[in-house]
Amino acid sequence: LRPVSPVRTEGFLVYVANLRFYHKTMEIAANPRVELCYMVGGHNQVRLTGVAEIVTERPLLEEIWNANALMRQYLGSLDNPQLIVYRIKPTRVRYMQEWALEYHEVSLSP
User: Fold this and answer.
1) Contact predicate 66/19, CB 8 Å
2) Distance CA 77, CA 95 (A)
3) Nearest Cα to 55, choosing from 27, 13, 21, 1?
4) Which contacts (CB < 8 Å, 24+ apart) does range 50-54 have?
5) Hey, which bits of the chain come out as E strands?
6) pLDDT tens by residue, 32-83
7) CA distance 52 to 14
8) pTM listed for this prediction
9) Any idea what DSSP says for residue 84?
């Protein structure tokens, strides 16, 4: 379990910023299968299982960078060698209502 910083979403496609020196960077390199869990105030949950890949497309990185003041403030430059942005491609999405104790599959098809 590691906290992450989502910096962009497109439907169930999630982009996460990370730093190279974080332990989770080594974990993702060794095993890119990840799961994101979101919980709202009422304890409803969404679990997104997917595969993390490093984003290398410069125009996309620039869009993400320009839309995130916090990244700009703390990292100073898009070319900061510590910055990694992962694209989490979902393979499975599940939803559970508060205390239901049963997940329901969510279709990934539009």
Assistant:
1) no
2) 37
3) 13
4) 50/14, 50/88, 50/89, 50/90, 50/91, 50/92, 51/88, 51/89, 51/91, 52/16, 52/28, 52/86, 52/87, 52/88, 53/86, 53/87, 53/89, 54/84, 54/85, 54/86, 54/87
5) 5-10, 13-19, 33-39, 45-54, 83-96, 104-106
6) 999 999 887 778 899 999 999 999 999 999 999 999 999 999 999 999 999 9
7) 9
8) 0.89
9) E
Contacts 24+ apart (CB under 8 A), 65-68: 67/7, 67/8, 68/7, 68/17
**Which CA distances in Å does 94 have to 45, 49, 60, 61?**
8, 8, 27, 28
Amino acid at 71: M
Cα 91 to Cα 58: distance, rounded to the nearest angstrom: 25
What is the spatial distance between Cα 108 and Cα 19, in angstroms, rounded to a whole number? 29
| pLDDT single digits (tens) 80-99 | 999 999 999 999 999 998 77
